[in-house]
Specification:
- The protein is an alpha+beta fold and 724 residues long.
- The chain folds into 4 domains: 69-96 and 458-722, Alpha/Beta hydrolase fold, catalytic domain (Rossmann fold), CATH 3.40.50; 103-209; 303-359, no CATH class; 361-457.
- Helix content is 19%, strand content 32%.
- An 8-stranded mixed β-sheet has the order 32-33-35-34-36-37-38-39, with helices on both faces. Strands 5, 6, 7, 8 and 9 form a 5-stranded antiparallel β-sheet that branches. A 4-stranded antiparallel β-sheet has the order 1-2-3-4.
Amino acid sequence: MTPARAPLFLLLLIVASMNSPAFGTPSADHLPVQAAGAIPDQAAGTASDQAVDPHLWLEDVMGEKQLEWVRERNAESRKSLAEGEAFAALESRLLSILDSKERIPLVSRIGDHFYNLWRDAANPKGLWRRTTLDSYRTPEPAWETVIDVDALAKSEGENWVWHGATILEPEDRTCLVSLSRGGADADVVREFDLEQKAFVDGGFALPEAKSRVAWRNRGSLFVATDMGPGSLTASGYPRTVREWARGAPLADAETIFEGRADDMSVGGFSDLTPGFERDFLVRQITFWTNEMFLRRDGRLIKIDKPDDASASVHREWLLIELRTPWTVDGTTFPAGALLVATFEDFLKGERALHMLFEPTERTSLAAWAGTRNHLVLTTLDNVRSRIDVLTHRDGTWSRAALAGVPEFGTATITPVDEIESDDYWLVTSSPLEPSTLALGSATAPGTAPEKLKQTPAFFATKGLRVTQHEAVSKDRTRIPYFQIGPATLPTDGSTPTLLYGYGGFEIPLVPGYSPLSGAAWLEQGHVFVIANIRGGGEFGPRWHQAALKEKRPRAYEDFIAIAEDLVARKVTSPAHLGIMGGSNGGLLMGNMHSLRPDLFGAIVCQVPLLDMRRFNKQLAGASWMGEYGDPDKPEEWAFIRGFSPYHNVARDRGYPPMLITTSTRDDRVHPGHARKMTARLLECEKPVLYYENIEGGHGGAADNRQKAFMEALGYTFLDRELTR
């Protein structure tokens, strides 16, 4: 079994990025009140950082006074944007796309069946269902319901949101089902019997927490969860791993591994591949550093790798992905390389490392996966997907390009069953070509895979085209971006254009099919642009590290350079140029608002970080200090303050209108960021609208109806402001 190449918290962040309306593929706690940094009347640096934050009271997420403030802001936004036939028509259109029965039902194999989580108008919370491969190949598969999440939520009086299932392999009969209240990261975990289609009476069950749970065998789990005072890190993640035996109280489970309070998290997992069974424990020190241990015969054996490298196993292989150069026995391997060695030989001290992927200036490793007899590498070549199949035979590795990958667009490959099979699922798309699902075999990489499903065209593409361009940033670095829109544009800069960006956590934005953006924006004759700025992962670790901590302004300079290039090319003009981003992309939006208000006509800022003085004291924020720095260190706050939008609002400066959205149930990025920024802008009489969805977690919406409303809100705002 191949464990995740990134910690769960990073994977969740990637999911949040992918849930954005862009074409790219990137419950709140009550917090103690503390003094914060200054809220100056002028730009940063003009007032004491020791001043009390007048809007700190808004960090009390569930306080009645605070929720009344939210309801008032929501009512204002509804009145401004969500009344009238045009909004209703757009919301209905987007919901019809989200609920369409013609979407591809992506599946994963468990035993002899193929499982899918399906949401539509009749099943807003979802059906976890299954079918056979023969049936799946047909236009109308025969689905068998395994869990009706809507019925379960109704019977238990909970707003359950599906968070997935962890299967006990290779038995494939029992699983651990995770369910979230309202879409928060925290969830409950219950054991479920796939044959009986019922939760196991007296089986494993965990209360709501940000748990890390993995099967060790049929009778025990590795559990990292909230066990009370002292059991969590400063980031709010588990600090201890316990081995929990079936039938025993969790409180009696033996603690087998422990991290430090200032670590990010810990976790354990087992590779249950027959013939390669082994246990691992991971100490996630920071977001970008970790230690990995093999647990064998009651002792821990540390995997000898750089702390900032990620290690994974697949059958007999150990794979190490580097973030910085690593010198081994006189050979230096570059940052961004993927290395492979025989696991047992590596444990014995042998260092026969083979470089499966060597990055170049414009190529990077996006992902790798293992099938029964092969490794499959997905790379980005100037932000375009490429896939190769690697095979080890007679002591050497051979490489073959996978057929069926589009020239412009994305390709995602997933093993059907990495334990028993060399088959794979291939999902491909481009901004103007709907997603296609195909089934192929890694044993024949040059043979085009069998096309099984295709998403219908949800928006009109006639007259549209995709082009790739480059802007030159302040330090002369070339920054690529994708432009999707009419093939012929007026030359007066009058075309409404939406520029989307993220630029953080080594997450690349790649061009794929986004029917919501297509229906809401492109069909109107507008232009959509994807920014591949530094801080992301488009060109590997170096692209990301170029915008870390004190270098964060490089990401903002890159985004500004793309905006200026769009204006210089007369694609658009500042009055018609809108921008959008969420999470770390919301921080990007806040900084564009602060740094270049003259360059943009409207801003949509989603589930954002904005108060960088206090981000590390809230929810998972402490885990992001490796990305942004530590605001409690004066020497680091000195540069962080420069990209803390909340502290850089000036009363005497004009700003473009901004829509800020968040979720009450976001237990990753505290909704206080969005609330306080809105309050500050209102206090300074600046144009701002605010909407806080009560549910939805960091994704901003808990179901399709909520998502359709939030998307319609953003696009209605942009269309109104940019088409004047």
